[in-house]
Design goal:
The chain is globular, with a radius of gyration of 23 Å. The protein has an 8-stranded mixed β-sheet with strand order 1-2-4-3-7-8-9-10, sandwiched between helices. The chain has a two-stranded antiparallel ribbon with strand order 5-6. 46% of the residues lie in helices and 13% in strands. The chain has 14 helices and 10 strands.
Length: 359
Protein backbone atom coordinates (compact mmCIF):
# COMPACT_ATOMS: atom_id res chain seq x y z
CA UNK A 1 0.00 0.00 0.00
CA UNK A 2 2.76 2.43 0.98
CA UNK A 3 4.80 1.56 -2.11
CA UNK A 4 1.82 2.16 -4.38
CA UNK A 5 1.09 5.50 -2.70
CA UNK A 6 4.71 6.59 -3.16
CA UNK A 7 4.67 5.55 -6.80
CA UNK A 8 1.46 7.47 -7.45
CA UNK A 9 2.90 10.56 -5.75
CA UNK A 10 6.08 10.37 -7.83
CA UNK A 11 4.04 10.47 -11.03
CA UNK A 12 1.79 13.37 -10.08
CA UNK A 13 2.34 16.38 -12.39
CA UNK A 14 4.74 18.95 -10.99
CA UNK A 15 3.44 21.56 -13.41
CA UNK A 16 0.10 22.10 -11.73
CA UNK A 17 -2.14 20.79 -9.00
CA UNK A 18 -1.23 19.90 -5.41
CA UNK A 19 2.46 19.08 -5.81
CA UNK A 20 3.85 22.60 -6.41
CA UNK A 21 1.42 24.01 -3.86
CA UNK A 22 2.52 21.53 -1.20
CA UNK A 23 6.21 22.02 -2.00
CA UNK A 24 5.97 25.80 -1.91
CA UNK A 25 3.85 25.71 1.25
CA UNK A 26 6.33 23.41 2.96
CA UNK A 27 9.19 25.72 2.05
CA UNK A 28 7.32 28.73 3.40
CA UNK A 29 6.32 26.96 6.63
CA UNK A 30 9.83 25.67 7.35
CA UNK A 31 11.35 29.06 6.64
CA UNK A 32 8.78 30.86 8.77
CA UNK A 33 9.14 28.51 11.75
CA UNK A 34 12.91 28.77 11.73
CA UNK A 35 12.81 32.54 11.35
CA UNK A 36 10.37 32.91 14.27
CA UNK A 37 12.47 30.60 16.44
CA UNK A 38 15.60 32.65 15.76
CA UNK A 39 13.84 35.94 16.49
CA UNK A 40 12.37 34.67 19.77
CA UNK A 41 15.70 33.37 21.04
CA UNK A 42 17.43 36.64 20.16
CA UNK A 43 14.73 38.77 21.84
CA UNK A 44 14.95 36.69 25.01
CA UNK A 45 18.68 37.19 25.08
CA UNK A 46 19.36 33.50 24.62
CA UNK A 47 22.27 32.32 22.49
CA UNK A 48 21.45 30.51 19.32
CA UNK A 49 23.74 27.71 20.30
CA UNK A 50 26.46 25.90 18.47
CA UNK A 51 24.00 23.47 16.90
CA UNK A 52 20.80 25.48 16.58
CA UNK A 53 22.43 28.31 14.67
CA UNK A 54 23.93 26.21 11.86
CA UNK A 55 20.79 24.07 11.67
CA UNK A 56 18.62 27.15 11.37
CA UNK A 57 20.82 28.58 8.65
CA UNK A 58 20.82 25.25 6.83
CA UNK A 59 17.03 25.00 7.08
CA UNK A 60 16.57 28.53 5.77
CA UNK A 61 18.89 27.95 2.82
CA UNK A 62 17.37 24.55 2.02
CA UNK A 63 13.85 25.96 2.13
CA UNK A 64 14.73 28.86 -0.14
CA UNK A 65 16.47 26.53 -2.60
CA UNK A 66 13.42 24.25 -2.62
CA UNK A 67 11.09 27.13 -3.32
CA UNK A 68 13.36 28.49 -6.06
CA UNK A 69 13.61 25.04 -7.66
CA UNK A 70 9.85 24.59 -7.68
CA UNK A 71 9.27 28.04 -9.19
CA UNK A 72 11.92 27.45 -11.86
CA UNK A 73 10.42 24.09 -12.73
CA UNK A 74 6.99 25.66 -13.05
CA UNK A 75 8.37 28.02 -15.69
CA UNK A 76 10.59 25.67 -17.70
CA UNK A 77 9.06 22.33 -16.64
CA UNK A 78 12.26 20.50 -17.27
CA UNK A 79 10.83 17.73 -15.05
CA UNK A 80 7.06 17.27 -15.31
CA UNK A 81 7.03 14.69 -12.48
CA UNK A 82 9.29 13.60 -9.63
CA UNK A 83 9.75 10.27 -11.39
CA UNK A 84 11.17 11.96 -14.48
CA UNK A 85 13.42 14.12 -12.31
CA UNK A 86 14.82 10.91 -10.78
CA UNK A 87 15.55 9.45 -14.19
CA UNK A 88 12.46 7.29 -14.79
CA UNK A 89 11.12 7.24 -18.33
CA UNK A 90 7.85 5.71 -19.50
CA UNK A 91 8.23 2.42 -21.35
CA UNK A 92 8.43 2.87 -25.11
CA UNK A 93 5.68 0.93 -26.82
CA UNK A 94 5.74 -0.50 -30.30
CA UNK A 95 4.86 1.99 -33.01
CA UNK A 96 6.07 5.10 -31.25
CA UNK A 97 8.55 7.55 -32.73
CA UNK A 98 12.16 7.96 -31.69
CA UNK A 99 14.35 10.91 -30.76
CA UNK A 100 17.75 11.49 -32.33
CA UNK A 101 20.33 14.09 -31.29
CA UNK A 102 22.09 15.58 -34.31
CA UNK A 103 24.53 18.33 -35.21
CA UNK A 104 23.18 20.79 -37.76
CA UNK A 105 26.15 22.85 -38.96
CA UNK A 106 25.90 26.51 -39.84
CA UNK A 107 27.42 25.97 -43.25
CA UNK A 108 26.20 29.23 -44.77
CA UNK A 109 25.46 31.30 -41.68
CA UNK A 110 28.49 30.27 -39.62
CA UNK A 111 26.12 30.32 -36.66
CA UNK A 112 27.48 28.25 -33.77
CA UNK A 113 24.41 26.25 -32.83
CA UNK A 114 24.15 23.55 -30.24
CA UNK A 115 22.93 20.06 -31.24
CA UNK A 116 19.33 19.69 -32.35
CA UNK A 117 16.92 16.88 -31.53
CA UNK A 118 14.82 15.20 -34.21
CA UNK A 119 11.56 13.35 -33.63
CA UNK A 120 11.38 10.57 -36.20
CA UNK A 121 7.88 9.06 -36.45
CA UNK A 122 7.41 5.31 -36.63
CA UNK A 123 5.99 5.67 -40.14
CA UNK A 124 9.36 6.96 -41.35
CA UNK A 125 11.17 3.88 -40.08
CA UNK A 126 8.48 1.81 -41.79
CA UNK A 127 9.45 3.38 -45.13
CA UNK A 128 7.33 6.54 -45.42
CA UNK A 129 8.83 9.34 -47.51
CA UNK A 130 8.07 12.93 -48.48
CA UNK A 131 7.06 13.67 -44.90
CA UNK A 132 6.12 17.18 -43.78
CA UNK A 133 8.49 19.04 -41.47
CA UNK A 134 7.91 21.02 -38.32
CA UNK A 135 10.84 23.04 -36.97
CA UNK A 136 10.40 23.91 -33.29
CA UNK A 137 12.22 26.59 -31.29
CA UNK A 138 12.54 27.14 -27.55
CA UNK A 139 12.32 30.14 -25.29
CA UNK A 140 15.26 32.13 -23.94
CA UNK A 141 17.01 31.09 -21.77
CA UNK A 142 16.50 27.64 -23.13
CA UNK A 143 17.76 24.39 -24.58
CA UNK A 144 16.26 21.98 -27.09
CA UNK A 145 15.65 19.52 -24.25
CA UNK A 146 12.93 21.85 -22.95
CA UNK A 147 10.62 20.83 -25.80
CA UNK A 148 11.48 17.17 -25.22
CA UNK A 149 10.96 16.97 -21.49
CA UNK A 150 8.69 19.76 -20.30
CA UNK A 151 7.10 20.19 -23.73
CA UNK A 152 6.27 16.46 -24.04
CA UNK A 153 7.09 16.55 -27.75
CA UNK A 154 7.35 12.80 -28.33
CA UNK A 155 4.18 12.07 -26.39
CA UNK A 156 2.25 14.71 -28.33
CA UNK A 157 3.47 13.45 -31.70
CA UNK A 158 2.89 9.79 -30.81
CA UNK A 159 -0.66 10.63 -29.71
CA UNK A 160 -1.24 12.56 -32.95
CA UNK A 161 0.03 9.60 -34.99
CA UNK A 162 -2.18 7.21 -33.05
CA UNK A 163 -5.25 9.34 -33.88
CA UNK A 164 -4.40 9.58 -37.57
CA UNK A 165 -3.32 6.13 -38.69
CA UNK A 166 0.37 6.66 -37.99
CA UNK A 167 0.67 9.99 -39.85
CA UNK A 168 3.11 12.40 -38.21
CA UNK A 169 5.73 14.91 -39.35
CA UNK A 170 9.46 14.93 -38.94
CA UNK A 171 10.00 17.38 -36.09
CA UNK A 172 13.33 19.14 -35.68
CA UNK A 173 13.89 21.01 -32.43
CA UNK A 174 16.59 23.39 -33.62
CA UNK A 175 18.82 25.65 -31.54
CA UNK A 176 18.04 29.26 -32.35
CA UNK A 177 20.14 30.64 -29.50
CA UNK A 178 23.70 29.28 -29.63
CA UNK A 179 23.88 29.16 -25.84
CA UNK A 180 21.40 28.87 -22.99
CA UNK A 181 21.73 32.53 -22.01
CA UNK A 182 22.39 33.93 -25.50
CA UNK A 183 19.82 36.07 -27.29
CA UNK A 184 20.65 36.71 -30.96
CA UNK A 185 17.08 37.98 -31.49
CA UNK A 186 16.53 35.52 -34.35
CA UNK A 187 18.09 37.88 -36.89
CA UNK A 188 21.34 38.38 -38.79
CA UNK A 189 23.45 40.88 -36.88
CA UNK A 190 26.63 41.32 -34.88
CA UNK A 191 25.22 38.68 -32.54
CA UNK A 192 25.37 36.01 -35.24
CA UNK A 193 23.39 35.02 -38.30
CA UNK A 194 20.60 33.21 -36.51
CA UNK A 195 18.00 33.99 -39.19
CA UNK A 196 20.12 32.54 -42.00
CA UNK A 197 20.89 29.51 -39.89
CA UNK A 198 17.22 28.73 -39.31
CA UNK A 199 15.96 29.64 -42.78
CA UNK A 200 18.83 28.27 -44.90
CA UNK A 201 21.15 25.89 -43.04
CA UNK A 202 18.53 23.98 -41.08
CA UNK A 203 16.15 23.31 -44.03
CA UNK A 204 19.04 22.29 -46.29
CA UNK A 205 20.39 19.90 -43.69
CA UNK A 206 16.96 18.36 -43.10
CA UNK A 207 16.40 17.79 -46.82
CA UNK A 208 19.85 16.21 -47.14
CA UNK A 209 19.41 13.82 -44.24
CA UNK A 210 15.73 12.81 -44.21
CA UNK A 211 13.13 11.75 -46.73
CA UNK A 212 11.03 14.87 -46.41
CA UNK A 213 8.80 16.83 -48.74
CA UNK A 214 10.38 19.35 -51.09
CA UNK A 215 7.10 21.28 -51.24
CA UNK A 216 7.31 24.42 -49.10
CA UNK A 217 3.63 24.01 -48.22
CA UNK A 218 4.64 20.97 -46.17
CA UNK A 219 6.96 22.99 -43.93
CA UNK A 220 6.09 24.79 -40.71
CA UNK A 221 7.94 26.54 -37.91
CA UNK A 222 6.82 27.09 -34.33
CA UNK A 223 7.97 27.95 -30.87
CA UNK A 224 7.13 29.51 -27.53
CA UNK A 225 8.21 32.84 -26.00
CA UNK A 226 11.49 33.72 -27.80
CA UNK A 227 10.77 30.78 -30.11
CA UNK A 228 7.29 32.09 -30.86
CA UNK A 229 8.67 35.51 -31.73
CA UNK A 230 11.29 33.83 -33.88
CA UNK A 231 8.69 31.68 -35.65
CA UNK A 232 6.77 34.80 -36.67
CA UNK A 233 9.99 36.54 -37.74
CA UNK A 234 10.89 33.62 -40.00
CA UNK A 235 7.36 33.43 -41.38
CA UNK A 236 7.47 37.07 -42.53
CA UNK A 237 11.12 37.20 -43.63
CA UNK A 238 11.25 33.75 -45.27
CA UNK A 239 7.64 32.95 -46.25
CA UNK A 240 8.77 30.70 -49.09
CA UNK A 241 10.56 28.50 -46.53
CA UNK A 242 8.00 28.58 -43.72
CA UNK A 243 4.53 29.51 -45.01
CA UNK A 244 2.98 28.04 -41.85
CA UNK A 245 3.85 29.05 -38.30
CA UNK A 246 2.84 28.58 -34.67
CA UNK A 247 3.48 31.56 -32.40
CA UNK A 248 3.00 30.60 -28.75
CA UNK A 249 3.33 33.47 -26.27
CA UNK A 250 5.56 35.46 -28.60
CA UNK A 251 6.53 39.13 -28.39
CA UNK A 252 5.61 41.82 -30.89
CA UNK A 253 9.26 42.29 -31.84
CA UNK A 254 12.69 40.86 -31.11
CA UNK A 255 14.21 42.23 -27.90
CA UNK A 256 17.32 42.43 -25.76
CA UNK A 257 16.04 44.89 -23.18
CA UNK A 258 14.86 48.28 -24.45
CA UNK A 259 14.67 49.15 -28.15
CA UNK A 260 17.84 51.23 -27.77
CA UNK A 261 19.67 48.34 -26.11
CA UNK A 262 18.43 45.93 -28.78
CA UNK A 263 19.64 48.14 -31.61
CA UNK A 264 23.05 48.63 -29.98
CA UNK A 265 23.40 44.89 -29.37
CA UNK A 266 22.51 44.08 -32.97
CA UNK A 267 24.58 46.70 -34.78
CA UNK A 268 27.13 48.06 -32.33
CA UNK A 269 25.61 51.50 -31.76
CA UNK A 270 22.16 53.00 -31.39
CA UNK A 271 22.14 55.53 -34.21
CA UNK A 272 19.13 56.76 -36.23
CA UNK A 273 20.36 54.76 -39.20
CA UNK A 274 20.66 51.58 -37.15
CA UNK A 275 17.32 52.28 -35.51
CA UNK A 276 15.70 52.42 -38.95
CA UNK A 277 17.59 49.31 -40.01
CA UNK A 278 16.31 47.46 -36.95
CA UNK A 279 12.76 48.70 -37.44
CA UNK A 280 12.69 47.25 -40.96
CA UNK A 281 13.27 43.77 -39.50
CA UNK A 282 10.48 43.81 -36.90
CA UNK A 283 7.41 41.67 -37.61
CA UNK A 284 4.92 44.51 -37.08
CA UNK A 285 6.74 46.73 -39.56
CA UNK A 286 6.98 43.98 -42.16
CA UNK A 287 3.32 43.07 -41.73
CA UNK A 288 2.33 46.72 -42.16
CA UNK A 289 3.88 46.93 -45.63
CA UNK A 290 3.65 43.37 -47.00
CA UNK A 291 0.83 40.94 -47.65
CA UNK A 292 1.14 37.18 -47.26
CA UNK A 293 -1.81 35.55 -49.03
CA UNK A 294 -0.23 32.08 -49.03
CA UNK A 295 0.79 32.05 -45.37
CA UNK A 296 -1.10 30.90 -42.30
CA UNK A 297 -0.45 30.93 -38.60
CA UNK A 298 -1.78 30.16 -35.16
CA UNK A 299 -1.33 32.46 -32.17
CA UNK A 300 -1.74 30.94 -28.71
CA UNK A 301 -1.07 32.60 -25.36
CA UNK A 302 -1.84 32.15 -21.68
CA UNK A 303 -4.94 33.95 -20.43
CA UNK A 304 -3.00 35.04 -17.33
CA UNK A 305 0.14 36.13 -19.21
CA UNK A 306 -0.14 39.86 -18.54
CA UNK A 307 3.16 40.77 -20.26
CA UNK A 308 3.06 38.63 -23.39
CA UNK A 309 -0.68 38.29 -24.04
CA UNK A 310 -1.12 41.90 -25.25
CA UNK A 311 1.88 41.49 -27.55
CA UNK A 312 0.61 38.22 -29.00
CA UNK A 313 -2.78 39.83 -29.57
CA UNK A 314 -1.08 42.76 -31.32
CA UNK A 315 0.85 40.54 -33.73
CA UNK A 316 -2.25 38.46 -34.41
CA UNK A 317 -4.22 41.55 -35.42
CA UNK A 318 -1.34 42.76 -37.60
CA UNK A 319 -1.07 39.37 -39.31
CA UNK A 320 -4.81 39.29 -39.93
CA UNK A 321 -4.67 42.78 -41.47
CA UNK A 322 -1.82 41.66 -43.73
CA UNK A 323 -3.99 38.96 -45.24
CA UNK A 324 -2.62 35.93 -43.48
CA UNK A 325 -4.96 33.04 -42.66
CA UNK A 326 -4.57 33.22 -38.88
CA UNK A 327 -6.44 32.29 -35.72
CA UNK A 328 -5.98 33.18 -32.06
CA UNK A 329 -6.70 31.35 -28.82
CA UNK A 330 -5.96 31.57 -25.12
CA UNK A 331 -5.26 28.71 -22.73
CA UNK A 332 -5.42 28.68 -18.94
CA UNK A 333 -2.14 29.72 -17.35
CA UNK A 334 0.60 32.29 -17.61
CA UNK A 335 4.01 32.35 -19.29
CA UNK A 336 4.99 28.72 -18.72
CA UNK A 337 4.86 25.19 -20.04
CA UNK A 338 1.39 25.00 -18.54
CA UNK A 339 0.41 26.82 -21.75
CA UNK A 340 3.19 25.95 -24.20
CA UNK A 341 2.95 22.14 -24.18
CA UNK A 342 -0.87 22.06 -24.48
CA UNK A 343 -0.70 24.71 -27.21
CA UNK A 344 1.29 22.41 -29.48
CA UNK A 345 -1.08 19.55 -28.76
CA UNK A 346 -4.10 21.76 -29.45
CA UNK A 347 -2.78 23.00 -32.81
CA UNK A 348 -1.53 19.70 -34.21
CA UNK A 349 -4.69 18.89 -36.16
CA UNK A 350 -4.60 22.34 -37.77
CA UNK A 351 -0.90 21.96 -38.51
CA UNK A 352 -1.51 18.49 -39.90
CA UNK A 353 -4.05 19.85 -42.34
CA UNK A 354 -1.83 22.78 -43.36
CA UNK A 355 1.20 20.63 -44.16
CA UNK A 356 -0.77 17.95 -45.98
CA UNK A 357 -0.79 15.13 -43.41
CA UNK A 358 -4.56 15.08 -43.09
CA UNK A 359 -7.12 15.01 -45.86
Amino acid sequence: MLHRWAADLAHLPLLSGAVPVLASTAAVVVTSVLAVAVVLRVRRGRALGAVFGPLSAFGLVASLLLAATVLTNLTVTRYPTVAVALGHRPAVTEGTGRLVDVDVPGTVSQFAARPATVYVPASYDAGASDLPVLVLLTGQPGHVVDWIEGGRLAQTMDAFAARHGGAAPIVVVADGLGDTEANPMCMDSNLGNAATYLSVDVPRWIRSNFRVSSDARAWAVGGYSYGGTCALQLAVTAPSVYPTFLDISGEDEQRRGTRSESVAAAYGTDTPANEARFERTTPLNILSRTSFPDSAGAFVVGADDEEFRPQTERTYRAAESAGLDVHYSELPGGHSMQVWAPALEQEMDWLGERVGLLD
